[in-house]
Amino acid sequence: MSFVEYSEEIRDGDMAIVYQGHESMMPVKVRHGAQTQTRYGAIRHSADLIGKRYGAKVTCSKGGWVYVLHPTPELWTVTLPHRTQILYTTDIATITLMLELKPGSVVCESGTGSGSLSHAILRTIAPTGHLHTVEFHQQRAQKAEEEFAEHRVDHLVTVTNADVCEDGFGVTGVADAVFLDIPAPWEAVRHAKAALKAHGGRMCSFSPCMEQVQRTRQALLAANFEELSTLEVVLRVHEVRSVSMPLPDFGPDAEAPPDRGAAPLRTTTPPREMPAHTGYLTFAAKPRDRRL
Ligand SMILES: C[S@@+](CC[C@H](N)C(=O)[O-])C[C@H]1O[C@@H](n2cnc3c(N)ncnc32)[C@H](O)[C@@H]1O
């Protein structure tokens, strides 16, 4: 098992996702002799997991069952232990697209936080790219490093425990893309510019407040960044339902429909209340003219 390569078989030492339902999943470290409690009873790792195929349906001790899934960055984002606020797949997908990330890309990121975005970046840039991620909280940096090793992506990432606004990313002129998720991104813009390759490269900053966006945009313009754009990505989930609609009465002269009953229709409804705002994504390109 690795977050950047699919394996068929569950092995000792893997991290697997136990799926109890769409709203109830949990990550499990697979260990010989260990047990995990689920809402349907216990799973014994040696008997029920090791040697089975990912995707298998596993019967628990109380007779209910769960699926055991191969981890992906998307499943990790919805099951990871939160040490900070995290980025979710809707924003992550936009960041990946707009920063033009691909296999082989070199990316700088700060802060690492809970590593939600980092795992998605690593899957995209594998097998030859590299992520330099900077986190100033010592325990968060250490925990992220441990998780990258457990998820077998540590060869693709360098974690640095530092203040990115003071010390930068620790690399110069190598990055294809830079991503910032810190409270004062404008203080790191000069370091982002220094980390990016001499010719071009793109950066993105995530901020919950418009005031942060304004200050970041001012710093980007002052540093001669180009093609500035700020987006807010809002996920709107609609529930699909079947409804019956009475046929309209067009009066006595109208041609009678073959069946005067109700017409079954498939429609969607948005939930009454919907959490929407996460933050604004500000994108910019490094000037291609080396003199700027
Ligand atoms: C919101 S979290 C990042 C979440 C991350 N994007 C994710 O998806 O899991 C922000 C992180 O930035 C770190 N941070 C804040 N200011 C920083 C700085 N100047 N240098 C390095 N890290 C910083 C914080 O300690 C925190 O862990």
Automatic annotation (TrEMBL):
<dbReference type="InterPro" id="IPR014816">
    <property type="entry name" value="tRNA_MeTrfase_Gcd14"/>
</dbReference>
<keyword id="KW-0539">Nucleus</keyword>
<feature type="binding site">
    <location>
        <position position="135"/>
    </location>
    <ligand>
        <name>S-adenosyl-L-methionine</name>
    </ligand>
</feature>
<keyword id="KW-0808">Transferase</keyword>
<comment type="similarity">
    <text>Belongs to the class I-like SAM-binding methyltransferase superfamily. TRM61 family.</text>
</comment>
<dbReference type="GO" id="GO:0005634">
    <property type="term" value="C:nucleus"/>
</dbReference>
<dbReference type="GO" id="GO:0160107">
    <property type="term" value="F:tRNA (adenine(58)-N1)-methyltransferase activity"/>
</dbReference>
<dbReference type="Pfam" id="PF08704">
    <property type="entry name" value="GCD14"/>
</dbReference>
<feature type="binding site">
    <location>
        <position position="181"/>
    </location>
    <ligand>
        <name>S-adenosyl-L-methionine</name>
    </ligand>
</feature>
<keyword id="KW-0819">tRNA processing</keyword>
<keyword id="KW-0949">S-adenosyl-L-methionine</keyword>
<keyword id="KW-0007">Acetylation</keyword>
<comment type="function">
    <text>Catalytic subunit of tRNA (adenine-N(1)-)-methyltransferase, which catalyzes the formation of N(1)-methyladenine at position 58 (m1A58) in initiator methionyl-tRNA. Catalytic subunit of mRNA N(1)-methyltransferase complex, which mediates methylation of adenosine residues at the N(1) position of a small subset of mRNAs: N(1) methylation takes place in tRNA T-loop-like structures of mRNAs and is only present at low stoichiometries.</text>
</comment>
<feature type="domain" description="tRNA (adenine(58)-N(1))-methyltransferase catalytic subunit TRM61 C-terminal">
    <location>
        <begin position="64"/>
        <end position="255"/>
    </location>
</feature>
<dbReference type="InterPro" id="IPR029063">
    <property type="entry name" value="SAM-dependent_MTases_sf"/>
</dbReference>
<dbReference type="InterPro" id="IPR049470">
    <property type="entry name" value="TRM61_C"/>
</dbReference>
<comment type="subunit">
    <text>Heterotetramer; composed of two copies of TRMT6 and two copies of TRMT61A.</text>
</comment>
<keyword id="KW-0489">Methyltransferase</keyword>
<dbReference type="GO" id="GO:0031515">
    <property type="term" value="C:tRNA (m1A) methyltransferase complex"/>
</dbReference>
<feature type="binding site">
    <location>
        <position position="163"/>
    </location>
    <ligand>
        <name>S-adenosyl-L-methionine</name>
    </ligand>
</feature>
<protein>
    <recommendedName>
        <fullName>tRNA (adenine(58)-N(1))-methyltransferase catalytic subunit TRMT61A</fullName>
        <ecNumber>2.1.1.220</ecNumber>
    </recommendedName>
</protein>
<dbReference type="GO" id="GO:0030488">
    <property type="term" value="P:tRNA methylation"/>
</dbReference>
<feature type="binding site">
    <location>
        <begin position="114"/>
        <end position="117"/>
    </location>
    <ligand>
        <name>S-adenosyl-L-methionine</name>
    </ligand>
</feature>
<feature type="region of interest" description="Disordered">
    <location>
        <begin position="246"/>
        <end position="292"/>
    </location>
</feature>
